[in-house]
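Structure tokens please, single chain.
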Amino acid sequence: MKKIYRKIIFWLFFALFVVTMPLAVLYSKGYRFDFYRNIFVHSGSITVKAVPTSVSISINGVPQKANGLDIINNSITVNGLRPGTYELGVSADGYSEWKKTVEVHSGISTEFWSVVLAPQNANPEKIDSPGAMKYFVSPFNEKIAYAAKTEKGIEILSYDAKSGEKTTLFSGENVEYRDEEFLNAEWNTKETLILNPVVKGGKNDFLILDIEQGLEPQYLSSLASFEQMDRARWSPKDEKSFFFLASAGPGENGAKNFYLADLDLKKTSLIAQNISAYDISSNSLYLLKENGILYKTDLSGESEEQITFSSIDGLKGKTPRVIAYDDKRQAIVAGDGRLFVHNNGKDDFFKETAQNAKSAQFSDDGKKLLFWSDNEINAMFLRDWEVQPRRAENEIQQIVRFSSPVKNVFWYRDYEHIFFSNNGKVKLIELDSRDRRICSDVLEYKSDDFSSSYDSLNGVFYFLDGLAGDQKNIFFLEIPKQEGFFGG
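Here you go.
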């Protein structure tokens, strides 16, 4: 080859290098050329963390190849997107598709950290529990106690989740299980004893049963004579002691006293007087007094500390409930449905937050409060939320509203989704309102008085269902379904 040609080729490659090198550097830095404006723009990205972890991603209907995705900590990132609007799709076999219109901005990742795909064609497993009318899962998900009606009374049985064995704990006549929406049986910390709210002889009582059957069944009324016994809760420190409310006596306008029952000593002790409602944390009692003020004490009722300083009126003759997360966060549902929230964050917030509230539930991290009425579900954010989508402390969002009743409302395990039942279907709705909130059907049920619960620790959804006229049974479904080490 002549020398002149070698020079030409050299300078051509050099020129190509000079031109392409800046382009390569710009590309590596995330810049893309915008042919509409004829300029380089800093690209953005979309990050998705989904359940299940093995999902397919599409942008504007075009599937994204796996080798073009960054997968870090079970999250998936699509890089190199020019600023603009995209249709993002997340899908997996056997699950409903998740799809939203999302905005991508220059130099920023648009993040979706809590995408949950609802399972399709759910196949719940049945627990052999014919005639069950109430069920109560133990704290560690190892046992289930359930009550069934008999011709003259009730029968209470326990089911061992590991062995599948059933044991009859009690069978009695002229006894009924108390049928109240938010009144549950209570397991002690060792999962050995259970408190059952019953009606015996026309009066409220509590039936104490030993799962291991070392103790004979006994009623709270056998320890002492009380009227209007209510809200029995086990002590978090003593497996054979529990707290309860009872009438302070006739002619006292419904005022109740607060007691501790000790099964070993077979006696009860007065803890506090004139108490409307209470709740328990690991080390403290939260007592709502008849004057409408909330106090905190230790588990013996000593070291009293005033928590709220504004009085809640209209408590006499009502049945309020206290729902405490810790010293800084509590909710009070008055008997008339008014919801009061105390949140001691950046400011000491204590206000009437809603009316016609049915109940409320804190997330396990204490950063959110879920509350609902007959037709509406809301979420309150108790701390500033810096992760996308951002929320402000004490901000309240309406999550969903129906003309027909919503029931069985509770958090999903990520506290960014909510379970509820409506019109024969169990639904799962997300809090993230960007574009729209995805609300998916999880399963259909048949019973008019369908009831359910969720073990968030183990991801197990329980429900009680049966065809009209048939005996009900307890069912369960894993949500999310357990995946292998590499997903799938």
